[in-house]
Amino acid sequence: MPQEISVGRPHARGMDNRGELLAAVGGELLRQRSQLGLSLEEAAASGHVDAARLAAAEGGDTPLSADELDRMAGAYGVDVTSFFGGHTTPLAYLAGA
pTM for the whole thing? Predict the structure, then answer.
């Protein structure tokens, strides 16, 4: 069942700048993928996300959509809020996804 993602203001210090937020979320996506021992292609296939988009998100270049984040969370066996330090998804991240 898809998880509802609440959109709110950033809670974590340093998450006010959109570029910093993209980099932080990208780093967390990469950290979790690496922890699971998955290649980029394996993770993308498991989360039904285009590998190029996942690579760009991990690099902090582009945000994933709420649906893509939800699928990646499912693929990694985590709550989607884990990509944001356990907080709700900041609107600044989803803007432009």
Answer: 0.75
